[in-house]
Design brief:
With 283 residues, this protein is of the alpha/beta class.
């Protein structure tokens, strides 16, 4: 299996669409987008996640977006993780095979979203059945209970998954429950924080890896929070967290999370990724 040693900031990138009736994918902007993130000091990206509207694209579109990002990441020295879940099981399997063929740096997978797993055992079984199709790629679970309504206890699940899934490496933890999140931390395990608004507390608790939407827009604030906590400047870190949370609140005046964040990104640079797709899109 490929080694996964990356720690630090990973941006969950948006998917760009043309301004046409069907909002067709704009693949041409991906390479400039990758270059822009690199210039901003972000050396890793997650594609087809929540911010990337992965669940609103066809399997073919998701494959083509991944292929374009693979080329862009190879050119710019960027780590590439791909989210393959949020689709019918046969499609998730197809996306796992595709990630294996491309040899991406990591795979992230949501749980089954209709026949929801209710126990650590059921969740482990589902992911094991997917991970077997990308056995040489580091495999991660995407814990985002506010969207999935899968509320399995993560520390228990992690212990089980590590024993059952040979290429399992950790999770993306998108939850405000910092107590449970802290219980996931363990040497040799990669736990990505996905909750921008609790970054300061999470770093203090021991988190060292982060996949947060605002890293597309203002990664410098997150870097400052992390550096201040790690150097003991806690008052400054708290002030920076308040600054980030105010920025998030201001952004969210303009719509749902993905639509508003994408709008803020478009306004923050000279790249225009277009609007979001229905049901997120608004005119």
């Amino acid at each position: 299996m490929k080694n996964f040693a990356y720690k630090g900031l990973m941006a969950p990138v948006f998917t760009a669409y043309h301004d046409d009736k069907d909002k067709t994918v704009n693949y041409e902007i991906i390479e400039p987008y990758a270059k822009y993130m690199k210039q901003k000091g972000v050396n890793a990206v997650l594609v087809n996640g929540t911010s990337g509207e992965g669940m609103l694209m066809t399997v073919l579109e998701r494959k083509q977006v991944t292929e374009a990002w693979k080329k862009a990441c190879d050119l710019n020295g960027i780590v590439l993780m791909v989210q393959i879940g949020g689709a019918p099981y046969p499609d998730v399997v197809e996306l796992a095979k595709h990630a294996e063929k491309l040899q991406v740096d990591g795979v992230l997978c949501l749980p089954e979203l209709y026949f929801k797993p209710k126990t650590p055992e059921k969740l482990t079984d589902y992911l094991k059945n997917v991970a077997v199709y990308c056995p040489n790629i580091p495999f991660f679970y995407y814990h985002i209970p506010m969207f999935t309504d899968v509320n399995v206890h993560m520390p228990t699940f992690l212990d089980m998954a590590e024993l059952a899934i040979p290429n399992f490496c950790g999770i993306k933890y998108t939850s405000g429950d910092l107590d449970q999140g802290s219980g996931c931390l363990k040497p040799g395990r990669t736990i990505f924080l996905g909750a921008d608004t609790i970054l300061c507390g999470a770093v203090a608790a021991g988190f060292d890896s982060f996949i947060m939407t605002t890293l597309n827009i203002c990664p410098e604030i997150s870097n400052e929070i992390i550096d201040c906590v790690n150097s003991g400047q806690l008052d400054t870190a708290r002030d920076k967290q308040k600054q980030l949370n105010f920025r998030i609140s201001d952004i969210l005046k303009h719509g749902d999370w993905v639509t508003a964040m994408k709008k803020a990104f478009n306004e923050s640079c000279n790249l225009n990724l277009g609007n979001t797709r229905a049901p997120l899109a608004f005119e």
